[in-house]
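Try this one yourself first.
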């Protein structure tokens, strides 16, 4: 088959080598991620892989204009305004990997969408992040990053009250409804599942590291190794969510990535740790004297703080996302910054001076990591370009501080309005990605608001 030049940089050689090394693979998931972070694509058969690497794969433009339910959002301009025509998806180099624990054996490859002329499709979240990475490189800066993954393991069955409940241990069926924070013994009951998660990560080339029992019944955190390439860090997070979900299902439990599945306990965040290197590989956030923070990291904090309000829809994109923000629940409620302080939104962690970084804490695990990273990088660039002062450090309780901080939205509707009006966010994401994302969020808001929930019946059915 004639080979087309891949705009993603992929080559058929990668596919040929993979097929030769893995004669057992029968099918391949080809996956791109929409603005909600949902993996969309197809499962192709083994004999189709070379065609995909040689010529790409046609996909409808509307695949990036879908809401959380997979329904078309016409306001994105990606449906009938363009005749729902085909664009072409191309594989991302280095992302073709075998999947663990699949029968029959399958593999996975990530892809991005391009116009038929080879230009990046500008409503693809991956391209939005690449724009910011390229812009930073033009300024001589190279971000390194890692995400943290928090999640719940839930029973497949609801409790007697109809609510979700923590999964029983997959080892012996033992149940616990306690907050087992940092309990090592509690982790042992899920070791068979965790072992499969680590094996899946290993096959995908993801350096998954420490597993923690987190601050709610059934909640866990899995840390990821730092990447010198922020795009790879986002890819790691996306792939790891799919791995956790698949392995949990194989063990008879449900992996939950809602931001707030239980009103009585803390929700799940997706903290982004980011540092900045220069062309020589030196971390420009490192201060000459420990504790005397340099202008670079302070201005980066200033940019993040100044733009947080208009960016909150990226960090909290769903109705449920906003239930996570409550005082003293380890989710920041104002754009504060501090050192070694988990009550602030922007934290400088303690530790090795050479690893100086900013921990960005507002995003929930339900957010799209490509869009989160793109927005964070754009905010840092904004702060550096304008030499923005971050204001005084918060040294105490960040839930009680921050009265002088820039305002952030208090609910989903306000966040949607702020994002729509934000010139910063248009620049951070690009106009097309901004329009697509905000249109989808507005459509989802309308869907939620017209839904009559159990809460409505509980509160009003017999009382008004």
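Now uncover the answer:
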């Amino acid at each position: 088959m004639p080979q087309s030049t891949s705009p993603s940089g992929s080559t058929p050689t990668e596919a040929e080598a993979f097929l030769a090394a893995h004669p057992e693979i029968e099918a391949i998931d080809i996956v791109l991620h929409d603005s909600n972070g949902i993996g969309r694509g197809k499962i192709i058969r083994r004999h189709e892989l070379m065609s995909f690497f040689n010529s790409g794969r046609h996909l409808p433009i509307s695949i990036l204009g879908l809401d959380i339910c997979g329904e078309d959002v016409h306001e994105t301009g990606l449906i009938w305004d363009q005749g729902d025509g085909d664009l072409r998806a191309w594989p991302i180099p280095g992302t073709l990997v075998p999947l663990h624990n699949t029968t029959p054996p399958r593999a996975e490859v990530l892809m991005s969408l391009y116009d038929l002329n080879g230009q990046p499709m500008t409503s693809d979240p991956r391209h939005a992040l690449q724009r910011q990475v390229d812009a930073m490189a033009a300024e001589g800066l190279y971000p390194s990053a890692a995400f943290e993954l928090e999640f719940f393991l839930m029973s497949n069955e609801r409790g007697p009250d109809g609510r979700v409940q923590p999964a029983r241990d997959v080892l012996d069926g033992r149940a616990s409804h306690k907050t087992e924070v940092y309990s090592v013994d509690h982790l042992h009951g899920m070791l068979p599942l965790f072992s499969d998660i680590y094996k899946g990560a290993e096959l995908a080339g993801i350096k998954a590291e420490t597993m923690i029992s987190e601050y709610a019944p059934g909640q866990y955190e899995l840390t990821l190794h730092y990447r010198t390439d922020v795009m790879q860090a986002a890819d790691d997070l996306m792939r790891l969510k799919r791995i956790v979900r698949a392995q949990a299902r194989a063990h008879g439990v449900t992996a939950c990535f809602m931001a707030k599945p239980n009103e009585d306990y803390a929700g799940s965040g997706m903290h982004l740790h980011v540092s900045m290197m220069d062309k020589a590989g030196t971390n420009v956030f490192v201060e000459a004297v420990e504790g005397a923070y340099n202008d670079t990291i302070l201005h980066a904090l200033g940019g993040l703080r100044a733009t947080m309000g208009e960016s909150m829809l990226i960090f909290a994109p769903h109705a449920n996302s906003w239930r996570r923000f409550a005082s003293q629940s380890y989710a920041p409620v104002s754009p504060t910054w501090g050192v070694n302080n988990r009550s602030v939104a922007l934290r400088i962690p303690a530790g090795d001076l050479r690893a100086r970084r900013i921990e960005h804490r507002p995003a929930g695990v339900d957010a799209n990591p490509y869009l989160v990273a793109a927005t964070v990088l754009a905010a840092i660039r904004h702060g550096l370009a304008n030499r923005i002062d971050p204001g005084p450090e918060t040294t105490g309780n960040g839930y009680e501080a921050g009265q002088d901080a820039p305002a952030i939205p208090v609910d989903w509707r306000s966040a949607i309005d702020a994002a729509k009006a934000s010139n910063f966010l248009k620049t951070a994401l690009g106009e097309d990605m901004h329009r697509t994302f905000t249109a989808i969020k507005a459509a989802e808001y309308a869907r939620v608001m017209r839904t009559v929930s159990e809460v409505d019946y509980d509160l009003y059915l017999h009382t008004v």
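Discussion: The chain has a mean pLDDT of 91. The domain at 12-121 is CATH 3.10.20.70 (Ubiquitin-like (UB roll)).
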